[in-house]
Design goal:
mainly alpha; 13 helices; 0% strand; globular
Amino acid sequence: MNPEETAAVTATPISALGRSYFFAEVVGEAMVESGFSGLPGYVGGRGGVLGDDAGADVVVSAFALFNPAFVEAGWSQTKEQGSPTDAAAALAVGLGRWAADTFGHLEGLDEFAAAARTVFDAAVPMSQALYAGWRAMPVPDNAAAATALALQTLRELRFGFHVHALSAAGMSPVEAVMAQAGPRQAQMFGWSEPFPDPEPLKAAHQKAEDITSARMAEVYEAIDAGQRAHVAATVGAIAEIALDEPS
């Protein structure tokens, strides 16, 4: 499998898997066990890799597509409930439990995690703070947990590229969300009406998607064709198990 094919077939399932594990019951339980509930379960868990001393404006910048007030509230509540780095660690624990429950029986997870690590070693962060933070998280010894961490890190890698591409295409955060997913997603990201009409924005958004895919293809050049095929097959197998509809 070539890099472009790998980038194309993994993009949608990796994004969708994030929605699956961030809201999984077992992940929420891990967060609550560490003292985090509500918005900190997402904002603190995902953003805690930025460090305990990160200001709200830094976290807002990293989350990029969210309403700043939404992120600021989540970060403030995280600090009220505990340490952001502890929130990120709790999320990592939850990811490991989700992985064990969901796809721990799959074969080849060690190989997937190793291939992903090779990609991460080659993909140097460039204004991609969340990716850099998740890349630096300790890799679990358990193959399923290591795979879950790799999925989250791949997701942040693509997200960082996508934010760059959206900026190059001249799109604002709310325009980007509306063009991709519409008003329901915009509301989930903390935005409120009136929303821009998504139709005139779709061409610019597609341009950003094309740039994002090209950048992801570049990073998949770090592994060989067999490893790329294994990465794609593993992501597909996990998505078929974890998502309501096969990807």
